[in-house]
Amino acid sequence: MVDDVGDRSARTIGDLFLEVERVHDRNAVVRQLVDGRWEGTPDWRFHRRALRVALYFDERLRLEPGRGVALAAKLGPDLAVIAWAALSRGSPVVLLPVHPGDDLLVDPPPELPGAVVVVGDDGVAPALPEPHGPVVGLGPSVREGTTSLATLLDLGGTLDTGERANAFRSRARAIDPGATALVHPAEGRAGWERLRQGDILTRVRHTWSARPPRTGDDVELTMGPVSPRDFIALIASIAGGHSCAVFSPARGEHRSTGSVGNR
Questions:
Q1: Which of 47, 60, 78, 210 is most buried, by CB atoms within 10 Å?
Q2: pLDDT higher than threshold 70 for residue 241
Q3: Is the dihedral of CA 100, 105, 107, 111 positive or negative?
Q4: Measured between alpha carbons, how far is 94 from 181 in angstroms, rounded to an integer?
């Protein structure tokens, strides 16, 4: 909990990444229902996946830290890995509509051009302005021109050397607390609102104060469109080092396929 993770010296999510990857006090960081059974991802595997995503962004995509990672997918374990990787390397996360029929309805934020776009199981993104960057699909099959998360993790694994991992940790340590961390549509979609790295950390600490992370606790989240509130709850659960984010299907949906497995 806050005793060993998230002490007052932490200024950014990058700092929290460095702290929590050393904590092993829970059976799983995330858990979801797969074919009627609950399956979880251990903390060491979750953080390794996030590191490999970050290395892929660094080495293969040459994604500058200020360029965005746009999420047009539903909340779930795989999206959690990408969000954690993005924040930990200093990339702003941009929350976009999930469904193809949803337009942005507002002028796109400056973080969107050139951003990596993450789409859901169906591989379909909402109408996006050009130019945007590479598209990553979370489903078992992806459309032409889209890279699956499974492929991304495999390629990221080839980059996962001690030297590169330590270089990533140095960059995570150097993130500016004033850097943009989250961009989401304002209420009524009248423009965009932004939270900085330091703002996210403050809200995470408020979440911990209201409900201190304890070993064995579950943080229940619905596998639906990502709201800023759910996003903060997810990051607080990951960064707390003790609780598990449990993803339940939205009402009327049945979740039958799992995440990317043991990569």
A1: 78
A2: yes
A3: negative
A4: 8
